[in-house]
Write a structure and sequence with these properties.
With about 375 residues, the chain is mostly helical. Among the domains are: about 110 residues, Orthogonal Bundle (Cyclin A, domain 1), CATH 1.10.472; about 130 residues, Cyclin A, domain 1, CATH 1.10.472.10. It has 15 helices and four strands. Strand 2 and strand 3 form a beta hairpin. The longest helix has 18 residues.
Length: about 375
């Protein structure tokens, strides 16, 4: 800059939009206001005389976004209370692969299982052992009968539905009719005959059942008991057994594989033998508990998913007690005298899941201590 050059402030011209009149009609000059971005008590921009210079918009200092004290304290409170903002795992549409399968009944399957859940307690199953309804029987005798029925079912190579319906018929009949000890096996044979007629395409004949029971009962006695059972149950055979829930819940246990399916059925079959499990848990809860215990045994993570919770209707905490009992049965399956289930699932065609080591952490989750 030379000495003869002076700096003067730039005079902005008055625009029509900046002129306004007062009540007396006098013109009042009003200059443009600064843009919001220019607010900050900045000094007027000066230019050199003779060398006009374009005015530059002053740059603001960039600031990092800061969190308020309330935001910080709220986040710390949530962390202290164990509240997280992690998104839940999505509920998977397990029926999507079966859309083209007419037998899958994808349009109605949800309604069908809602009906199953509502009707699973309508079978009339009662605590017949502890209410003196069966003074000549006890839970151990029932366990021996069910173990034998599982063995017979395997030898005849019957459908799994037949086994579950057989045990359901036995329990419901014992809930409404007093049975002497010597006729308990007769009830089991007749119940299996009914279940096979209902579920099998080629059910075993009466002579086959007589032979498998070592001629303990004549043909006429079996047919008479069959008629008595149907009469006392009102011919009500379309009931939701644990089997129908196991099939659905295992499908919801993703990723679905044959090993998982075999483990779930192994644990469920163990539960069928024990009266306390059958009488204290609905069929759907037994099935869901078996899935939960199987996932823990096979180290599936997470042990319980949003998809399983959606399709079963059970939370993880509701299943731990029953699952713990199933794991206990798994631990002693090879040592107990009743080995029908163990022999069934120790075979390679069932994945030999009976020899898998039982899970060790369910007891800790429920009781606060590791299983010994």
């Amino acid at each position: 800059m030379t000495s003869n050059q002076s700096v003067v402030p730039v005079q902005q011209p008055i625009r029509v939009a900046d002129i306004k009149k007062n009540n007396d009609g006098q013109i009042i000059e009003r200059r443009n206001r600064r843009a919001l971005v220019d607010i900050g008590n900045l000094a007027p921009t000066a230019v050199e005389t003779g060398k006009p210079k374009l005015d530059e918009t002053p740059k603001r200092r960039s600031r990092k976004p800061s969190k308020s004290l309330t935001t910080v304290l709220t986040a710390r409170s949530k962390a202290a209370c164990g509240i997280t903002t992690k998104p839940k795992d999505p509920v998977v549409n397990i029926d999507e692969p079966d859309i083209g399968n007419e037998l899958a009944q994808v349009e109605y399957v949800e309604d069908i299982y809602k009906f199953y859940k509502l009707s699973e307690t309508e079978g009339g199953l009662q605590d017949y052992m502890n209410s003196h309804s069966q003074p000549d029987l006890n839970a151990k005798m029932r366990a021996i009968l069910v173990d034998w029925l599982i063995e017979v079912h395997r030898k005849f190579d019957l459908m799994p539905e037949s086994l579950y319906l057989t045990i359901n018929i036995v329990d419901r009949y014992l809930s409404v009719r007093k049975v002497p000890r010597k006729e308990l096996q007769l009830v089991g044979i007749s119940a299996m005959l009914i279940a096979c007629k209902y579920e099998e395409i080629w059910p075993p004949e009466v002579s086959d059942l007589i032979a498998i029971s070592d001629n303990a009962y004549p043909r006429e006695q079996i047919l008479t008991m069959e008629k008595a059972i149907l009469g006392h149950l009102g011919w009500y055979l379309t009931v939701p057994t644990p089997y129908v829930f196991v099939v659905r819940y295992t499908k919801a246990s993703l990723p679905f594989d044959e090993e998982m399916e075999n483990m779930v059925f192994f644990l469920t079959d163990l539960g069928l033998i024990h009266y306390s499990v059958i009488i204290n848990n609905s069929p759907s809860k037994l099935a869901a508990s078996a899935v939960y215990a199987a996932r823990c045994t096979l180290k599936k993570t997470p042990a319980w998913t949003e998809t399983l919770k959606h399709h079963t209707g059970y939370h993880e905490d509701e299943l731990k007690e029953c699952a713990k009992a199933l794991v206990t049965f798994h631990e002693c399956a090879s040592e107990t005298k009743l080995k029908a289930v163990y022999r069934k699932y120790v075979n390679p065609d069932k994945g030999a899941v009976a020899v898998f080591p039982p899970v060790r952490n369910i007891e800790a989750d429920v009781g606060g201590g590791e299983q010994s």
